[in-house]
Structures are given as C-alpha cells and as structure tokens.
Amino acid sequence: MLAFLMFGFGGIELVGMAAAEAKDPEKTIPKAINQVVPRILIFYVGSMIILLSLVPWNQLNFGGLDKSPFVMVFSMIGIAWAAHLVVYL
Fold it and tell me: Shortest CA distance to 54 belongs to which of 25, 20, 83, 87?
C-alpha cells in the first residue's frame, strides 16, 4: 500500500524526468525517494493527529461519511469560513 501512496503522491513519470535533469541522479534520486515516506507521514498522519487534538475522537460523527473530517472539525470548533474554504479547495 505504501508503494501505491508513493506513486500517487509523486507519479512515476516525474521520477524519470527528475533523473534526466538532476545534477547527480545516483545520489539525489535515492535521497528523494527516501524522503517520501516521512512526508506522507507528516501530511496524512500528521493532519489526522492535529484534527484529533482539536476535537476528541468520540465527538466526531463517523456516521456522516459524506463529509470531510476537516469540514466537520472546523464546523465543530466554530470556524465556519474555514470549512467552506476546505470544501472550495
């Protein structure tokens, strides 16, 4: 599953294009690939940790799967304009 996330995050064709234009591809491409996993953890898992630090997990409405968790949290903490911004983006 992590491989699917990595390719979905960066795209397989971007690796080839970056390797063709890199100054030292033998060094920089493995370094960039190794940095993908921490970035996935920061952006995906980190955002969920931040959301759950704002609102306890037992107060989230998991029955409404048609809503984004970001929209639910912003609505629950009283920042309605941010919820609309998330929907727009």
Answer: 83
Q: Residue 18 has which token pair?
A: 């970056």
Distance in angstroms (rounded) separating the CA atoms of residues 15 and 28: 11
Distance CA 82, CA 60 (A): 17
DSSP state of 12: H
The model's pLDDT over 1-60, given as tens digits with 9 standing for 90+, comes to 666 666 666 666 677 777 778 788 888 888 888 888 899 889 888 888 888 888 777 777
User: In the chain, what is the straight-line distance between the N-terminal and C-terminal CA atoms, in Å?
Assistant: 26
Predicted model pTM:
0.51
Q: Where are the domains of the chain?
A: 1-54, 56-89
